[in-house]
TrEMBL record:
<feature type="binding site">
    <location>
        <position position="39"/>
    </location>
    <ligand>
        <name>L-glutamate</name>
    </ligand>
</feature>
<dbReference type="GO" id="GO:0030170">
    <property type="term" value="F:pyridoxal phosphate binding"/>
</dbReference>
<protein>
    <recommendedName>
        <fullName>Phosphoserine aminotransferase</fullName>
        <ecNumber>2.6.1.52</ecNumber>
    </recommendedName>
</protein>
<feature type="binding site">
    <location>
        <position position="149"/>
    </location>
    <ligand>
        <name>pyridoxal 5'-phosphate</name>
    </ligand>
</feature>
<dbReference type="GO" id="GO:0008615">
    <property type="term" value="P:pyridoxine biosynthetic process"/>
</dbReference>
<dbReference type="InterPro" id="IPR020578">
    <property type="entry name" value="Aminotrans_V_PyrdxlP_BS"/>
</dbReference>
<dbReference type="GO" id="GO:0006564">
    <property type="term" value="P:L-serine biosynthetic process"/>
</dbReference>
<dbReference type="InterPro" id="IPR015424">
    <property type="entry name" value="PyrdxlP-dep_Trfase"/>
</dbReference>
<dbReference type="InterPro" id="IPR000192">
    <property type="entry name" value="Aminotrans_V_dom"/>
</dbReference>
<comment type="subunit">
    <text>Homodimer.</text>
</comment>
<dbReference type="Pfam" id="PF00266">
    <property type="entry name" value="Aminotran_5"/>
</dbReference>
<comment type="similarity">
    <text>Belongs to the class-V pyridoxal-phosphate-dependent aminotransferase family. SerC subfamily.</text>
</comment>
<dbReference type="InterPro" id="IPR022278">
    <property type="entry name" value="Pser_aminoTfrase"/>
</dbReference>
<feature type="binding site">
    <location>
        <position position="99"/>
    </location>
    <ligand>
        <name>pyridoxal 5'-phosphate</name>
    </ligand>
</feature>
<feature type="domain" description="Aminotransferase class V">
    <location>
        <begin position="2"/>
        <end position="345"/>
    </location>
</feature>
<keyword id="KW-0664">Pyridoxine biosynthesis</keyword>
<comment type="function">
    <text>Catalyzes the reversible conversion of 3-phosphohydroxypyruvate to phosphoserine and of 3-hydroxy-2-oxo-4-phosphonooxybutanoate to phosphohydroxythreonine.</text>
</comment>
Length: 359
């Protein structure tokens, strides 16, 4: 079955096979990854390799710390304002979908947060042009969501923020293409779409920003403490970090890096958008064409009955988890890194046939 779930999402098959092969006894450790200490040599080697893989795939400069945290991306919605906007400083937010709105709502519980752009009026189907941004030049940071998982809108490049540090929720498109990490103050992503299983969240932070973390923050919520302790201040999610290491091995060794991954992702997304555009009266894409996501393809059919029929028949073709989020309706095909081209071809052919039979 091809799993089009928005997350937790499918993992690459070679990674699953490796987990199966190493589950009882991790080579060199004499026990399972689930049983060894996070302070043991074998685990130290795993977390160091996971970080090295991320640094190599994304060319992360030495001036940035890489943290492996728990609490999912939602905990970042709170940790970011707690750490980066101390003393009542105000932060700016771009609201281009459900997740950006959730990040803003959490930030407001901590301190002042402004909306520098929102596409709520059009149900988050678009992204801002540079002249639509109402930026505060003194903001503590500007937060945005580079890929809105529910609406399927994605920034192709980062918004320009001048001297204000850019904070990016990259949860649903992390590692789908190369990035210039130097453009960001902080970039974070829960692992369960492109990087591994649920349980670990990657935070890449400019070390200069660590100076903002106040000593009186609760220890777990303080970025500086995690950076000073190489993400081993408390017991980290050892299994999730181990799988993240395997996924990043796969990206490096099997795929050949993020340029190659990006090419594959563009090819996969183009196949589905081509079908939408071939039947514009039947498949109505949610995102405006200029900001279509390469990861989450969202569209509606002419009626609820046809949507139900589409989902039922898709299942018969081994195409699973295609139901759209209730706030957008219709269909959402999440085609993360691990979705093979073959899965997308199967879906494209099914959509083609379904439109011909029902339009
Ligand atoms: N941000 C984005 C863009 C997401 O897609 C999600 C989850 O799907 C989250 C944040 C929340 O992540 P978590 O469930 O790990 O807290």
């Amino acid at each position: 079955t091809f799993n089009f779930s928005a997350g937790p999402a499918a993992l690459p098959v070679p990674v699953l096979e490796k987990i199966r092969d190493e589950m009882l006894v991790l080579p060199g450790a004499g026990a399972s990854i689930l049983e060894i200490s996070h302070r043991s040599k074998p685990f130290e080697a795993i977390i160091a390799a996971a970080e090295a893989n991320l640094r190599s795939l994304l060319s992360i400069p030495d001036e940035y710390a890489v943290l492996f945290l728990q609490g999912g991306s939602r905990l970042q919605f709170s940790m970011i304002p707690m750490n980066l906007a101390p003393g009542g400083a105000s932060a700016d937010y771009l609201i281009t979908g459900t997740w950006g709105k959730s990040a803003l709502d959490e930030a407001k519980k901590i301190g002042p947060a402004r909306v520098a752009y929102s596409s709520a009026e059009s149900n988050f189907d678009r992204l801002p042009t540079p002249d639509q941004l109402d930026l505060d030049p003194n903001a503590a940071y500007l937060h945005y969501t580079c890929n809105e998982t529910i609406q399927g809108v994605q920034f192709a490049t980062e918004p320009k923020t001048g001297d204000v540090p850019l904070v990016c929720d990259a949860s649903s498109d992390f590692l789908h293409r190369p990035l210039t990490i130097g453009h960001y103050g902080l970039l974070y992503a829960c692992a369960q779409k492109n990087a591994g299983p649920a349980g670990v969240t990657v935070v890449i932070i400019d070390k200069k920003l660590l100076e903002r973390s106040a000593d009186n923050l609760p220890g777990y919520l303080n970025y500086k403490i995690h950076a000073d302790n190489d993400s081993l201040w408390n017991t980290p999610p050892t299994f999730a970090i181990y799988v993240l290491k395997l996924v990043t091995d796969w990206l490096k060794d099997d795929i050949g890096g993020l340029d190659k991954m990006y090419q594959q992702n563009k090819t996969k997304a183009e196949m589905l958008y081509e079908v939408l555009d071939a039947y514009p009266a039947f498949y109505q894409g949610h995102a405006q064409p200029a900001c279509r996501s390469l990861m989450n393809v969202t569209f509606r059919l002419p009626s609820d009955d046809l949507t139900a029929k589409f989902l039922a028949e898709a299942k018969e073709h081994n195409l699973a988890d295609l139901k759209g989020h209730r706030s957008v309706g219709g269909i959402r095909a999440s085609i993360y890194n691990a979705m093979p081209v073959e899965g997308v071809v199967t879906l494209r052919n099914f959509m083609d046939k379904f439109a011909n039979a029902n339009a």
